[in-house]
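Listing S7. Sequence submitted for prediction.
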Amino acid sequence: MRRHVLLVGLPGSGKSTVGRLVAEALPAPLLDIDGILVRQMGMPVAQIFGMVGEPRFRAMERDAVATARAREPAVIVPGGGWAAQPGQLETARPACLIMYLKCGIGTAVSRSEEGEVRPLLTGADPAERLRALLAAREPFYKLADYEVSADRKDARQVAKEVVRLAREHGGW
C-alpha cells in the first residue's frame, strides 16, 4: 500500500525544493501546505501569520495536512512548525512515511535568506531564532520514520535519498 511521503524539518532545510524533486521522481502530486494556504487566503504566509496569529495559522495548517492525507498518495510538505504540534506526527503516521530533513543552523540560515519572508525568523538574529526553534522542535522531528541529512548536499542528492526510502518503505 502506498503511503504519502511527508517531509518535516526546520525552515531552510529544503522541504519545498526537495518535495518538488521527489514528486517529479516518483511521480506523485506535490501538496505544499504553505502554498495551499497562500492560494486559499490570497496573501503570502507572513501576511497570513500576521493577520490571524500563530495559533490560528497552526490550526489552518493542521486542517490542510488532514485534507491532504485524505487524498491519493502524494508528497506532503507542511511548514516547519506543523510537526512540533503535539500529536500531529502520530496522527499522520499510519498514512504517511515521515522523513526529517536534518540540516545545521548555518545551512538553514543561508537557505532561509534566499526564499520568501519566514515570520518566525524575522528579527536581529535569525541563527539564534533557528537554534531556539531547533531546540523546541527537534524532539518532534526525531519521531519521523527516517532522518535524511540535508546538510552539505544539494537538493537533488537529498531527493534521491528520499525517493529511495519511499520506494523501499512507502510502497512507491
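Caption to Listing S7: primary sequence and predicted C-alpha cells for the chain studied. The mean pLDDT is 90. The domain at 4-169 is CATH 3.40.50.300 (Rossmann fold).
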